[in-house]
Write a structure and sequence with these properties.
The structure is a single chain. This protein has about 260 residues and is of the alpha/beta class. It contains 8 helices and 10 strands. The chain has a single domain, classed as 2-enoyl-CoA Hydratase, Chain A, domain 1 (Alpha-Beta Complex), CATH 3.90.226. Strands 1, 2, 3, 4, 5, 6, 8 and 9 form an 8-stranded mixed beta sheet that branches. Strands 7-10 form a two-stranded antiparallel ribbon. A hairpin with a 4-residue loop joins strand 1 and strand 2. Helix 2 runs parallel beside helix 3. The radius of gyration is 19 Å and the shape is globular. The N terminus is likely disordered.
Amino acid sequence: MRVKRLFNYKNTQFDDELKNVPHNFAAKHDNEKAITELTIYGVIGESWWNENWTSAVDIDNALKEAGTNNIEIRLNSPGGSAFDGIAIYNRLMNYKKETGAKIKIYIDGWACSAASVIAMAADELIMGLGSMFMIHEASSGVWGAKGDFRSEADLLEELEEGIIDIYMTKANVERKEVRKKVDAETWFSASKAVEIGFATSSASSVEGDNAEEIANLRAQNANLQNEITQLKNDKKEEPKFEPGQPTNKRKGFLF
């Protein structure tokens, strides 16, 4: 019997930390300073594991109230719905085009999966000390015959190509390199995110060097754990699947 994990990540060592990221969506408009601050903590899009989440509709409503203010976002999220993440990215990009405003995003803790897509809308992306940025393959659940699974795999391929298009608006490496990092599930410390072009800078303080070393070690450990897990999975016998009665064929796209 397959066990459904909380996050469909190859690396599981951060699951407990990620599931405990509290939900918090808030919008604060300071029209005198022409700044709207959005707080996006927790899951992106509707979630089967959490009753609270931030949707593209939440962002859209907040931007309608922002007028032409510059936007500052405090981001800390394990990810969630691929399409909500993409929709939020596009809504932020359209807002910039329509108003001429600038968007600054601070990654306070995590920007994983769908949250990493949202982060690409920033004109300035600042990684907090010890924060992490993660990209990986999209996933979904589907029920049906072999044709349904083939169709779903094709759809996931197209979805990932679109997501990589978004990453390539910032990346300073070739597309095939980003594709490899997506396939492998890659965790970036602040300095590594800046190095590849995803982030523009990392926060600094007197303790910055030690914090950055810790974040680098965490990222290296996560990627090493991915490789170990993959090797173990390659050696395991495929587990038996115990079917249940589905309510529909597709169970959504997680990212």
